Amino acid sequence: MNSRVTHIGVMRSDAAVYDPRPPKPRKGKRGPKPWKGPRLPSPRDAVKKADQGRGGPWVWRTVKVRAYGVTRRLKALSYQALWPKVLGQRPILVVLVRDPLGKFKDAYLFTTDLAADPAWVIKVYSRRWSIEVAFKASKQVMNIQSPQHWCQQSIEKLSPWVWLMQSVVSLWYVSQGHKLPQARAARNRLGEWDTEWSLRHMRRVLYNVILEQTITINSAPKPTCLN
Predict the structure, then answer these.
(1) What are the φ/ψ torsions at residue 223 (nearest 5 degrees)?
(2) For the chain, what are the domain ranges?
(3) For a FRET experiment, which of 49, 71, 74, 169 has its CA 20 to 30 Å from that of 217?
(4) Cβ(71)–Cβ(65) under 8 Å?
(5) 59-89 pLDDT tens trace
(6) 214: pLDDT confidence band, cut at 50, 70 and 90?
(7) Euclidean distance between CA atoms 200 and 146, whole angstroms
(8) Segment holding 108, helix H or strand E
(9) Which of the given ranges, 105-114, 152-161, 216-225, has the highest pLDDT on average?
(10) Contact 83/110 with Cβ under 8 angstroms?
């Protein structure tokens, strides 16, 4: 993992994590020096300790963060650790999150930025949703997986082109397309679970606009009879 890049992600609830502070080696003891301390509670166990009010580092604190388009008050618990199975000797900041309202399940997050504020970690991680939606649209709407590739260069060219087209279609609809009569007509046909801000809807409107501007009743000369 690149040490110059800050990573934020999700952890297993039973991840084996350790104290990043190794114990002092005893005098006269042979062998390699220890590089990690004793095992720490897994994210799931740390949450249980916080619920039991054990005190020490296992204490919930309230954070105010804007996540998924809404400003929320969440509970957060953070502590530094090593996750050898995934990140080797690189220390991480474990961030555990709970929604007091119970709308979301407990989240077990981590970041390689040891000085990060838990609220910032939660906010940045919540942005992944828009990325996942974009990838889903690439597969289901743009059929990014349909072409058969025979070389690495073909794959490297296709993905940027597809994502560029998604951006162009989205920008066109947000800036101009949603004002057109074709968009108004399409909105009237939306089902209960449909939204006009999906890429599938935007592409459908663009398709109808292109057809109407390309094929019109006045696009051909006077009819002629072939003898």
Answers:
(1) -60, 140
(2) 8-23+32-126, 131-214
(3) 169
(4) yes
(5) 999 999 988 878 899 999 999 999 999 999 9
(6) confident
(7) 17
(8) strand 107-111
(9) 105-114
(10) yes
How do beta strands 91-98 and 8-10 pair? unpaired
The DSSP secondary structure of 56-82, one letter per residue, reads TTB--EEEEEEETTEEEEEEEEEEEEE
* Residue 74: exposure state from Cβ atoms within 10 A (0-12, 13-18, ≥19): buried
Alpha-carbon distances, residue 203 vs 143, 157, 170, 184, 207 (angstroms): 13, 22, 9, 14, 6
Q: What gap in Å lies between CA 9 and CA 128, rounded to an integer?
A: 10
Task: Transcribe 91-107 into DSSP letters.
Answer: EEEEEEEE-TTSSS--E
Other Cβ atoms less than 10 A from the Cβ of 194: the count is 13
- Here the tokens at position 107 are 């989240």
CB 76 within 8 A of CB 60: yes
- Residue 11 is encoded by which pair of tokens? 């952890």
Name, in order, each residue with C-beta under 8 angstroms of 186's C-beta and a sequence gap of 6 or more: 196, 201, 204, 205, 208
